[in-house]
Amino acid sequence: MSFSAVAQTPQRPLPGAFMMTPALANRRQSTTAASSIFSPAPSAPTAQDAGRQVAQQQTQIAASQRPGTAAPTNILTWRATTLLGKGADNLQEGISSEYDISANPAWVPFQKVKLYDIPERIFDQYNEAQGLSTNMGLFAELNHAWFTIDNSLYLWDYTHPNPDMIGFEEQPHAITSVKLVRPRAGVFVNTITHVLVVSTTSDIILIGVSSQPGPGGSHTVTLYQTRMQVPIKGLGVSCIDGSARSGRIFFAGKASNSLYELTYQQEEKWFQNRCGKINHTAKGFTTVLPTFGSKAPPEYVKQIAVDDTRNLVYTLSSTSTIRVFHMKPGNVLDLIIARPLAATMKDISHMVSRSELLVPGTTITSISPMSATETSRVSLMGTTSTGCRLFFSATSGTYYSSDSSTAPTSMQVHHVKFPPALLPGQTSSSRGPSTQMTAYQSGAPVTDLNSRSLTGTRTSIRYAPGYFFCFVRTDQNPHNDILFMSAPDSGRIKGPQEVSSATKFAESAMWNLLGGNVEDVGLVTPPFAASASPLGFGNELAVQFDQPAAEVAVLTSTGIQTIRRRRLVDIFAAAIRYGGGEDGLEGEVRKFARMYGRGETTATALAVACGQGLDVTSDARVAKITDPEILEYARKAFIDFGGRATLNENSVVDNGSSAIDNVRPSPRHEGIALYISRLVRSIWRAPLIREAVTPLGGLVVLPTVPLSKLQIVQRDLTQLQEFLDKNKSLIDGLAGPEALGRVATKQDEIALQGEHRALNALVRLILSVIEGISFVLVLFDERVEEIVLSLSDSSRQRVRQLTYEGLFCTSDGKDLAKELVKAIVNRNIANGSNVDTIAEALRRRCGSFCSADDVVTFKAQEQLKKASENGANSESGRILLNESLKLFQKVAASLTMENLQWAVEQYVSMAFYAAQETDRANRALAWIKDDFPQQDSRQSAFESRKRCYDLIHRVITAVDQASSQAPEMLDGDYTTTAKRRSEAYDVINNSDDEVFQTSLYDWYLSQGWKDRLLEISSPYVVAYLQRKSIDDVDHADLLWRYYAHYNSFFEAAEVQLMLAKSAFDLTLEQRIEYLSRAKTNASTRTMGMREVRSSRQSRQELLREVSELLDVANLQEDILQRLKQDTRFPDAERKAMALKQLNGPVLSLEELFNGYADQAEYYDLMILMYEAADHRNPSSIRATWQNLLDQVHTQTVNEGSPQPWEAVSEKTRSLGIRLNLADITFPVHELLPMLEKYAFEHQRGKGPATWVVDTFLDLSVPYETVLPILEAMFYNDEAPFEGRNRKYIANDMLYVIHRWFVDSSRSGTVVFGSDENAAAISETLKVLLQNGGMDEARVEQCELLRVKIDLNMR
Fold it and tell me: CA nearest 201: which of 156, 168, 231, 179?
């Protein structure tokens, strides 16, 4: 609803921002950008907030492990939504060198998958290209490799056994480098998924790449000519990188140390081509690192890396200098940090006194960014030529820089990870007692600072959440690189189980001898991310069943080797396979339990037993482990190592609670809950549906989780359900009553009962999730759009907000699912389908959502609907009615109120009002909603129905007359007449005929019965008043009263606000009254009558808008009253025009300031407008205050009374109260010197000597504020308070100190608030005695006061 309104008042405009404003000359210097007046941006979440969140989660999990009835749900909710561990944020400042390198192939973190040969055609081309430049690399995300020979580029799918070559040979210059990047949005058509950046000796060329996924994970790649290229002759481009988020492309060459950006756009512009280049470092690098006179080779950029999460670009130069650039919109790139190698080594020297690995000659070979979503502490990792990993933290001030809009200002080495002490071919077990994993008695691991195991590092790369690949070339084997791989051990980082695992960032590692030199490496799978924030980002355990294991491709001169990250479940399965005998297997499981805990061990064993383990087969395929021996031993480990529930008898005594509530479930229970949570984590908090709009404007409802994913989750849970059912006789808590025969004590019996309750709840939860997923699959088998649209508005909104967690675990979700089931059945009934078939299918797939009583109810509804179609007066109709009634009687005990109401409405609707029969098309209602157009054919339909309604009006009159002649109550009970009158009005008011209700309300108002309209609780009243309120102020006034009557204060405030802003003929006083009422209503939190309530944010926004408009209206009222008394108008006509304009709609602050207050020189109102507009220009505020003092002084001198100092003091007090001593518009540090100067120059010897400081002290300005200002004036010795005139300031200082001393003494606290303040004031009094120039009386008072202060301090 909206009234016809004048232009709305802008929110917080800046007074005087228009350069043509009259009387602006004296403040012209204060005109600034309007952006300074807006509210500051909301602050980012702090580390303390994250800490509180973790603490709350830990409290929840601790509480959930007391297995009450809600325990499994609580632990599952927490496990599914919270990911333990902070990943790279666990890297503390300092050094380390701990790696776990195992001799057992089952425990290695990676495994080779397959070696793809390079096609023979490539070798043939290479052999023919002797003397020509060649290069090769990977596009791993597309499963493609590339090879360049001179000016030709070739691509092939390395996973295909006989791939086709895709060639680019359309330019004549030798190719120097190639990079695949994401394009800028909106430049190319949607089919272009990537851009191939090809640099030659002459140009950089952009080639469009279309990648379409195919079966089996393959990709079909097509190249497109873009006709975009830029000349780069002489640059020798060797490195390229791009921003995946913004599509910006950066490159650099060996000819200089400059960083360039390649710009490209869809069309040419007046001063910009489609493609160009920008040198971002030409202006500043020579000033950072001058090289004049140096004989060293020129510095150049050897690597570029982009961090989109922080909007940073890193470069590594040939001198191992790291530079950091900040990306800004508009192709802006600012150099913010330059970190030479010497500065890096200096940082390390504070952590390591001496190391052979960090000596002159050591260089940084590569860098890898670490995203802000992974870690808030560390932003970059660099690897030295000796294999040391340097972790850098970029900070802005004293905070870690993780905000993309804020550029860091410095970068330091945060942590140094030294190479492993083990050489290739050695393992932790082969060396005996290794320093690598052996701890001192204190538990601190030994750090090896001089290991040469990674000396000769050529390059390295790091992938989230910490996969480290380091390529080493030794002099002994220069033609075959050695690959060192490490990965964080999420299980041990999450919660170390041993003292020897004291390191907070445990890593497992392995060596791999490559059959050639490494050319390139790339990530095949999507980047890892267990969460969108550092908290839980690196928790691989949580997503091991949810995301594919990371896979990396390594290109060497002999082929492409793919390497797969092994999940914990794969390691457990491999440990069983390579355990070596019965004792060896048990030893491996016990080792697993020591490292990861029994809960994690049982969860992993359960996963393997349910078929989740994967391994690489002999034909290089990754397949599920189906070996019966492995599955059997995993089942045995789950049962044997599951532990037992325990009873905490102390808690029973302390809390007085029942014993079963203090049973802590077994690790087996924790393992089951962990496994369930990891299966459902991706769907747990996801909504069931999302709505979208088709290109033609229709509604389409889609699942937020792909149905294939739901089917996978359901399949895994079904396997778990079958496993538990098959082995329940061997599992304590599921075995049934026979398990009680195995207990020996009463405590064991209680513990077993608690275990049974906890495990049984998990079993029920598994069943609930399986059936819930079945229900969702059934829902999307139907036309879900029609089903959702058939629901009521409130139910439809609840369906939009329903998550899988709510569906599985809450009664409200179950009820909503049943409502959807009914909608499915009703839709099929309406389409003529057999209800028995539908209901039986629902019962079979999701029985908890469709019971036997539900089936009978559906059948009764079907019979009733058919009866209404056949007609109640027909023979078949009566039979169907009787049959439906019998069916409803059978399930009367289970009928919901909604079902009952629907049935009653159906029965009543067969004898509906005759008025509706005369207008079945409801043309009268359409005529009403079209605002009663004249000479419309629909008017006759309305008149015809109105004649029927007039008869009802006569009935109402007769009922009222009859009831008025009889008493309403007799002997405390309602009379029969009163009851019949109430029943009649119930029928009238509950009619759903909107045309009738509209006619009824018109008749009520024509009779003057406004109060009767207020007593009707019906949505038709609101619609009626909203429609009428557009053109009539009386109806609008009645509308807000109606809202307020039913406690809908928010809606009432909205109407009052619209009235205040409307173009109705209202005075300013009436508008202020509406705004005052609106402010009161908007502040009231009582729930209203509407079903859809206003949110807290909407209420706050409305209250803010009303308050701001009320402030402006009050200022307008002040100007109006001031102008009424102003005699400066040249004629009465202009004054009347101004008063009329002010006594109407609320004007904007600009209009009030520029059109009235500024021109009329109402300086006090101008200051109030500064506060209302949040104006923060100190010079204009100071000038306005000075003008106000001068104006008040002049007026009082001319008028003769009161005394000028009294008028100035009173004006200052009144403004201070209205401004609430705002720091900006009531600057005490400016006003106090201003008034002191005024008193000295104009009112010396008049009035009390201390009237200036009394003015501020009476306003409750703190003594701590007033005294330092006076003290600064005393010491500054500035005119006019210089020389002997300083005594006036000294007198005021003495007066303030004396009042402060008296007030603080009366309060009974330490005088002056603290001993430090007292000592400082004593010294100030000493200075006043020496240099204050005070008279003898004040000197004596000062000495006495100083003595009192000293006595109090003793």
Answer: 231
b/e for 1269-1306, b at 16 or more Cβ within 10 A?
bbbebbeeeeeebeeeebbbbbbbbbbbbbbbbeebee
DSSP string of 331-363, one letter each residue: TEEEEEEEE-HHHHHHHHHTT-S--TTSSTT--
**Structure tokens given for 401:** 């820089």
What local confidence, expressed as pLDDT, does residue 669 receive? 94
Distance CA 715, CA 844 (A): 17
Highest-pLDDT range among 159-173, 944-958, 1097-1111: 159-173
In the chain, % of residues over pLDDT 90 = 29
Torsional class of 306: left (φ above 0), alpha (ψ -120 to 50), beta (otherwise): beta
Strand partners, 207: 196, 225
| Cα-to-chain-centroid distance, residue 1216 | 41
Classified as helix, coil or strand, 795 is helix
pLDDT band at residue 182, thresholds of 50, 70 and 90?
very high
Given a contact cutoff of 8 angstroms between Cβ atoms, the answer to whether 62 and 469 are in contact is no
Q: With contact defined as beta carbons under 8 Å apart, do 813 and 807 qualify?
A: yes
For 930, how many CA atoms within 13 A lie in the half-sphere containing its CB?
15
Tokens representing residue 234 in the block: 């002489």
Average pLDDT over residues 813-827: 82
307: left (phi over 0), alpha (psi -120 to 50) or beta: beta
Return all residues near 772 (Cβ < 8 A) that are at least 6 apart. Answer: 804, 807, 808, 817, 846
Task: Identify the CA nearest to 1321 among candidates 1354, 1303, 1296.
Answer: 1296
- Contacts of 1200 by beta carbon, 8 Å cutoff, 6+ apart: none
Amino acid at 143: N
Distance from the first to the final alpha carbon of the chain: 72
- pLDDT tens for residues 383-399? 999 999 999 998 886 56
Q: Which of 1056, 998, 1064 is nearest to 1031 (CA)?
A: 1064
CA 1022-1028-1034 angle, to 5 degrees, is 95
Residue 1254, classed as helix, strand or coil, is helix
Return the structure tokens found at 192.
Answer: 């272009």
The pLDDT value given to residue 1275: 86
Query: Is the backbone peptide bond immediately before 1280 cis, with ω within 30 degrees of 0?
Result: yes
B/e letters for 997-1023, b = 16+ CB within 10 Å, e = fewer, are: bbbbbebbbeeeeeeebeebebebbbe
How many Cα atoms within 13 Å fall on the side-chain side of residue 97? 24
pLDDT of residue 952: 66
What pTM value is reported for the model? Answer: 0.62
Residue whose pair of structure tokens reads 């959930």 in the numeric block: 64
> Both tokens of residue 721?
């359900």
Spell out the residues 6+ positions from residue 20 whose beta carbon is closer than 8 angstroms to its own: none
Alpha carbons 584 and 315: distance in angstroms, whole number = 50
Of all helices (H) and strands (E), which one includes residue 622?
Answer: strand 622-624
DSSP lists the bridge partners of residue 469 as: 461, 485
Residue linked to tokens 């003057």: 1008
User: pLDDT tens digits for 638-679?
Assistant: 998 888 888 877 665 555 567 788 888 999 999 999 999 999
Q: Mean pLDDT for the chain?
A: 80
Residue 94 has pLDDT above 70, yes or no: yes
Residue 871's φ and ψ, nearest 5 degrees, are 100, 135
Please compute the mean of the pLDDT values over residues 131-159 and round it to a whole number.
91
d(CA 241, CA 1007): 80
On whether the CB atoms of residues 820 and 795 are closer than 8 A, the answer is: no
Residues 1156 and 1178: beta-carbon distance below 8 Å: no
**Distance (Å, rounded) from C-alpha 72 to C-alpha 67?**
7
Mean pLDDT in residue range 1299-1322: 84
Q: pLDDT digit string (tens) for 412-462?
A: 999 999 999 877 666 555 443 333 333 333 445 678 889 999 999 999 999
